[in-house]
Amino acid sequence: MEFLDLKTQQKRIRKPLEKRINKILDHGAYIMGPEVFELEEKLADYCDVKHAISCSSGTDALLIPLMAWGIGPGDAVFTTPFTYVATAEVISILGATPVFVDVYESTYNIDCEKLEAEISKVIDEGKLKPKAIIPVDLFGLPARYRLINKIAKKYNLKVIEDAAQSFGGSIRDKKVGTFGDIAATSFYPAKPLGCYGDGGAIFTNDDSLAEECKAIRIHGTKTDRYNSERIGLNGRFDSIQAAVVLEKLTIFDEELERRNIIDASYRKYLNNAQYHPEGYQSAHALFSITMGSKNKRDELIKRFTSKNIPTVIYYKFPIHMMKAFDFLGYEDNDLPISKKLSQTIVSLPMHPYLAKNDIHKIIETIKK
Prior knowledge:
- The chain has helices at 6-27, 34-47, 58-68, 86-93, 112-125, 145-155, 207-216, 239-249, 252-267, 294-306, 336-344, 356-367, and strands spanning 51-55, 75-79, 97-100, 129-134, 158-162, 170-171, 174-175, 182-186, 200-204, 280-281, 287-290, 345-348.
- The chain has 368 residues and is an alpha/beta fold.
- The strands form 3 sheets. Strands 1-9-8-5-4-2-3 form a 7-stranded mixed sheet, with helices on both faces.
- The protein is globular, with a radius of gyration of 21 Å.
- The mean pLDDT is 97.
C-alpha cells in the first residue's frame, strides 16, 4: 500500500508526457519555454482568473507577492503556526515578523475571531505595522475567506491565499486561486496537482501586481534581462516540469472526483477527521484524523506499521515551537489548539488510486 501513488498515475500519462518532453529536447528552451506559457494560460482558465504566473516553487509563490508589496522590517504578517514552515519562512526572510494565530479545532484553518484579536493587539502595542494575512488552506480545505477578506478590508491588509495544498478546491461556485488579493500554490510532487520536481504558481486579477510578480521571478527584470529594475530572484519555471503539470491537468478533475469518493468512504466509519463546512470543497491533499492523546496516536501508528500501512504526521511541531522561530518569543502553550493537533493528528493514505480493499484494511486496523 502506498501513502502516495505516483507510479500508477504516471502510467496513465507516460506516453503523452514523453512526447512533450521529446519536443522540449528538440526546441531546447529548457527554462521558461513555450510549455510554461501554455500551462499559465490553462491554469488561469481553470481558476477563472486573469493571471497565472508560474515560478520555481510554492515557497517562491508566497515570497514573490510579499516582495512585490515591499513588505519588510517593522511589518507584521498574520498566519497560522499549524502548517508547513515555508509559510512563516517567507515572512522572516524579508525581515518582517510572523504573527501567529491559532486555528479552529474542527477545520485546522486560521480562527477568524482570534485573527482580528491579534491584529488589534499588534495595533495597540504599536511596535509593528500590520500589512498582510496569509491564511492556509490546510490539507486541501479552503479557509473562511469571506470573513478573512472582511477583516482585511477593515484594517487595510493584503491577503495571500496559501493554496499550496488546495488547488482544485472551491467555496461554492468559486475555485481556489481566486480568494484574497493573490493566491499561491505548489506543484511539489506530493500535491494534488504536482510535477516531478519543484514548482509553483501565483494567481491574481490585479494587472499591476501580476507584472511586478513576473519581473521579480526573473531577477527583477521587465524589458531587458540584463537590466534589473528592482530586486528580484531566480524564480523561473522549468519547461519539463511544466510539461508534467500540463499532462496531469488532463486527468486532474477525474482524480479530484476519485479523492472525493475515497474521502467519503473514510467518513462512513470515522468521525474524527477534519470538518468540511457546507459549500466548501476540499482538494483532499491529505486525509487526517485526530486521536484523543499522543499515546493513542502512537499506539495507532504502531498498529498501522505492523500491517504495513503507511502514515505520516503533519505536523509534528507547530511553527512557533520550532527552534528556528525562538526569536519570536512564543511559549509552548501560547497557541493551544495548534499544539494539541500536533500531538494527536495522523494522516492516512490518500490518493486517487487507493483500492477499496486498502481502505477496508485501514478502517479495520483503526477499529481494533
